[in-house]
Design a protein that fits this description.
Rossmann fold, alpha/beta, 18 helices, 3 domains, Spore Coat Polysaccharide Biosynthesis Protein SpsA, Chain A, nine-stranded mixed beta sheet, six-stranded parallel beta sheet
Length: 529
């Protein structure tokens, strides 16, 4: 695979943190057998970009990239931005704005970020601030900077060095590094300090390792702060402004010494794979909508299962129906693109209303007890080609004009081949354009039967059938639900919360209402033959 890496400068031109990180990524890609062409923003031309439209582009720092070149890149199928700071702001510093949110007239390069296949950020706070300002969803957090193996190995040799000196401040001519502010802080606290600096990378680390404490007062929001992380890897204490240190937003920030070094090695290796795999991902035009009512504890696992699909969705949303069990949940902590937080329990239909806002070809739903296998979306896409229709994980075949006594097809009973059914539940997958059929008629009841109503109205108004994709015993990765029996029968299950007699009476009523309205379940069609 060929890559073109575009940046203002490279490591052989300047020894900056961004350039060192870029170099680590370049070395990694080359070690994997990929061809990498490095070209500066000033050297590359719009014509060169256009003539390489099939190539994978990685954009590092791009302050000197002209607008015509950004426009050319925006037309390239595969380009990512490796964001080291805040080039989406005129100030390149969100810390001067309340809550890090800049006014619209301070936003720049929005379309360039929006059109990228992905924007890679260095920390959780970096990702959040960028997303909050640009209102885009193609943002990924690698949760680290990229140190070379050689540098991390060297830091490990220094991690247990004896601390012979007290406090140090890095002497920097760059005003955003806050040397003057750190000096003022130490003097106000009567703290003795040394100013340290060296042009030699390893020499600087050797000097830093001799100190007990680093005093660092940044003047901007540091996307990670390699300096602070290096100090902590060297077992130095750090006096700093945590709110302006991106690394402080990561769960590993409390670690130090060899434990932190090992964590950074693992995180860095995962990040490098992310860069390589982003160009290999099979991303389909799918919006996923998860439902949260009483089982918020399963959301993290659900999201993990969806992120690990062989066929990736474009967006993941959470629809929250109000319940005392979820009122204390911080939904901003979940790795999703949208959260619909309601002050009312809209029960089963609300999430389908939210789906009308989706801007993708397909929509997928999951009940809160449903963890799909890694090939579920792949299974659905393959099934859709041969049997276009409403797809689901728990198929139902009716035997008469009521719900009770039905036959199940899907994850709970396994089906080797795609099977036409009367309705599906637990997990849905269908074209978004079919969604309006659900709203063509007012439901028999808002308390139950959305699965019945959708298959009924889609058949009546769109001649659309309903299918259960294959759930073969030999490949559970294709399954819509892997732990349905474990997660779906607890005391929170809606079918258990309500009296069984009432629950099935409502569903029987939904079936009869649909049949009276013109729905023809399979058993009726077979009788007509």
């Amino acid at each position: 695979m060929k890559y073109i890496f575009v940046a203002d400068l490279f490591r052989d031109q300047i020894l900056g943190g961004a350039e060192c990180a870029d170099n680590t990524l370049i070395d990694y890609l080359r070690s994997k057998g990929h061809a990498v062409e490095c070209i500066t923003c000033l050297q590359i031309t719009a014509e060169h970009i256009k003539s390489n439209k099939e190539t994978n582009f990685i954009v590092g720092n791009f302050v000197s990239l002209a607008d015509d070149k950004k426009e050319a890149l925006s037309e390239v199928e595969n380009y990512i931005i490796y964001e080291h700071d805040h080039k989406y702001l005129k100030t390149r510093d969100p810390s001067v704005f309340p809550n890090f949110i800049a006014p619209p007239d301070q936003i720049v390069n929005k379309e360039f970020y929006k059109n990228a296949k992905a924007v890679f950020c260095l920390s959780a706070i970096h990702k959040k601030v960028l997303k909050d300002n640009l209102k885009i969803n193609n943002v990924k957090n690698i949760a680290t900077s990229l140190w070379s193996d050689d540098k991390l190995d060297y830091i490990k040799t220094l991690a247990n060095s004896p601390k012979t000196k007290k406090h140090c401040i890095v002497q920097s001519a760059n005003p955003i590094k806050g040397t003057k502010e750190a000096i003022a802080f130490c003097e106000s606290k009567n703290i003795e300090y040394d100013l340290i600096s060296t042009s030699h990378e390893k020499g600087f680390l050797k000097v830093l390792s001799e100190y007990e404490t680093l005093v660092f007062v940044p003047k901007v929001l540091e996307t990670l702060s390699r300096l602070v992380v290096e100090a902590k890897m060297l077992n130095c204490n750090v006096i700093t402004k945590g709110a302006l240190i991106g690394a402080a937003s990561e769960p590993w920030f409390d670690l130090g010494g060899e434990e932190l070094i090992n964590k950074i090695v693992d995180t860095k290796n995962n990040a490098l794979k992310m860069f390589e795999e982003i160009f290999q991902e099979n991303i389909e035009d799918i919006t996923v909508i998860l439902t949260c009512y009483r089982r918020a504890e399963y959301l993290t696992k659900q999201i993990e299962h969806i992120r690990n699909q062989t066929t990736k969705p474009k967006e993941i949303w959470i629809w929250v129906n109000d319940h005392v069990d979820n009122r204390g949940v911080d939904f901003t902590t979940f790795d999703v693109d949208r959260v619909f937080r309601n002050d009312h329990n809209w029960k089963f239909y609300g999430r389908f209303a939210a789906a009308l806002l989706a801007d993708t070809e397909y929509v997928a739903f999951f009940d809160d007890d449903t963890l799909p296998g890694s090939r579920w979306f792949e299974n659905c896409m393959d099934t859709m080609e041969e049997s276009p229709g409403i797809l689901g994980g728990a198929g139902v075949l009716l035997k008469e004009d009521r719900y009770f006594g039905h036959q199940r097809v899907g994850w709970s009973s396994e089906n080797e081949e795609t099977t036409e059914v009367d309705l599906v539940g637990h997990a849905w997958f269908f074209r978004r354009e079919w969604l309006p059929y659900l709203w063509t008629e007012k439901p028999f009841t808002w308390d139950n039967g959305e699965d019945i109503q959708f298959s009924y109205t889609a058949q009546k108004y769109g001649n659309i059938k309903t299918y259960c994709p294959p759930h073969p015993a030999s490949d559970r990765a294709l399954f819509s639900s892997l732990q349905g029996y474990q997660l779906g029968i607890d005391e929170k299950a809606e079918s258990r919360v309500r009296n069984h007699e009432i629950f099935y009476k409502q569903r029987d009523g939904c079936v009869k209402n649909a049949i009276d309205g013109g729905w023809k379940p399979i058993y009726m069609r077979e009788k007509d033959v």
